[in-house]
Design brief:
With about 130 residues, the chain is an all-beta fold. It is about 0% helix and about 40% strand.
């Protein structure tokens, strides 16, 4: 597998011999799924946020909520969540935002570790692709 990342634009693409998988960080700091399908050769071939068509919200500000790569429960996200948390103060909303990433390359493999942080509580999540 090959990992292509653009640090400034916060776009990521995983490539195998026949497939590509793309993600980006939105303007609101949400990790969004962009693409999964036939192999693409460059990041420029990934659809940009405004080109995505599976939005469920009419309001422009909330469209990215329905295309999250790793959605947590709460807020404006109403589908099945990847994770749910309950905090000491009784709240259960989890609002994950992009914090950074690491790429680890070894002889025969590579790993993409995207780090997310909850906006209020001290909760950190690593979304790992191998």
């Amino acid at each position: 597998m090959r990992i292509i990342a653009d640090k400034d634009k916060k776009i990521f693409m995983l490539q195998t011999e026949h497939m590509s998988y793309g993600m980006q960080v939105s303007g609101r700091g949400k990790l969004q799924h962009l693409y999964w399908g036939e192999r693409l050769e460059s990041l420029r071939e990934l659809p940009a946020g405004p080109q995505l068509t599976n939005y469920r919200h009419e309001e422009e500000a909330w469209k990215e909520e329905s295309n999250q790569e790793y959605p947590a429960s709460g807020g404006y996200y109403f589908d099945e969540a990847c994770m749910k948390a309950a905090y000491r103060d009784g709240s259960r909303d989890t609002n994950l935002h992009y914090l950074g990433y690491d790429v680890t390359e070894m002889e025969d493999s590579c790993t993409l570790d995207i780090k997310l942080k909850e906006s209020v509580n001290e909760l950190y999540v690593s979304v790992i692709y191998k």
